[in-house]
Amino acid sequence: MAGNRQSRKKFENAKIHLDNLQGICWWCKSTADSLEHRHKKTDLNRFTRDGIQPEWVGNGKSEIIRGPNSKSEAVRFGRVLCQTCNNKRSQDFDKAYDKFSNALVESMDSWWHRDSVDLIHIYGTTWKQDSLNLARYYIKNFGCLMADLGISPPQTMRDFLNGSEAMDNVALLLVKSESHYLAHRYLLQTLGDNYSLFRTPSTVWTSSEDKRVIGYTSSSLIGYVGVQILWHPACNYPNFTTCSSSPPLHVLETTNKSRILIAKAAVRSKFAKFSSFFSS
Ligand SMILES: [Zn+2]
C-alpha cells in the first residue's frame, strides 16, 4: 500500500486530521476481517493470464506482483471491510463492474473519441439496476481507499450501498484522462495492448477550524477511462446513474508540464520496460 502510505504521509505533514479506521468494516461497522483488492481481481487476471507478472509503480518505487492473489500491500487494502460486505453483500456490484470493465477493455482505443458511455449497449434492458450496482462497486472501492487512508467516508456513501439511489454531496463521474490517453498511445506502440490500471492521486478538502476532511476526490482508471469520485460540500454534479442511458464521459484535462513529461518518458522508452503495470 505504498501509494496510500505516501498519501497518508503527505496528509500528516499537512497536519490534516486523520482517523485510525483499521480493524472496523467502514460499511457495516463490524470487525473487518477481509483484505479487499485495491483493483479487482478480474482486472489483475488480465495481466497474469499469459504468465506475466505485472509491475506496480508509484511514488518512485516499483514492485513485481506475483499474481492476483498476492497479499502485497500494493494489491490489497488494509483491514477496512468485513468478509460479508466484501463478498455476499456486494456480489451484484462486482458482476456489474466486470461487465463494465470488459466493455472498457474491448473498446479501449476508441473511448477518447466518444462523449458518452452507452449503458444499454453494456447491460441491455437491465441497464438501470446494473448501472446502480456499478456505481455501488465504485463507492465500495473508493470507501475502502478512503478508510485505508484514515478518511471517514460520509454516511451517504453507506446509505447508497444499502439501497439509497442518491447521495448528498457525493458524485461519481465517468471520465477519460488526457494524460493517461497520451501514455496509452505510447503504450500501444511498445506493448501492442493496454489495460493498465491507474489511480489518480487522492486530494482532500479540509475544514479551516480543525483540519478535518470534508471533501475528497480520486479516479480509478483502466487504460485512460474510468470513474472519478467527487465529495465536496458544494458538489452539485449529478451521479452518472441519474443522467440517462448514455451519461457523459468527462475529460480530465492534463497540463502542458505533464504533456512534456509524458513525451520525454516515451523518448527514453521508459514505458517499454513494463510488460504491464498498475498503480494504487
Ligand atoms: Zn461489513
Quick recap:
The protein is of the alpha+beta class and 280 residues long.
How is this structure best described in words?
By secondary structure, the chain is an alpha+beta fold. It has one domain. It has helices at 2-13, 41-48, 83-86, 91-106, 119-123, 127-149, 155-161, 178-191, 256-267, and strands at residues 55-58, 61-64, 170-177, 197-199, 203-206, 213-222, 225-231, 249-252, 277-278. Strands 3, 4, 5, 6, 7 and 8 form a six-stranded mixed beta sheet that branches. A three-stranded mixed beta sheet has the order 2-1-9, with no helix packed on it. A hairpin with a 2-residue loop joins strand 1 (55-58) and strand 2. Helix 4 (91-106) crosses helix 6 (127-149) and helix 8 packs parallel to helix 9. It is globular and about 45 Å long. The N and C termini lie close together (7 Å). It binds zinc ion. Zinc ion (ZN) binds at residues 25, 27-28, 30, 81-82, 84-85.
Topology, element by element:
Elements: H1 2-13, H2 41-48, E1 55-58, E2 61-64, H3 83-86, H4 91-106, H5 119-123, H6 127-149, H7 155-161, E3 170-177, H8 178-191, E4 197-199, E5 203-206, E6 213-222, E7 225-231, E8 249-252, H9 256-267, E9 277-278
Parallel strand pairs: 1-9, 3-8
Antiparallel strand pairs: 1-2, 3-7, 4-6, 5-6, 6-7
Helix pairs in contact: 4-6, 8-9
Bound molecules: zinc ion.
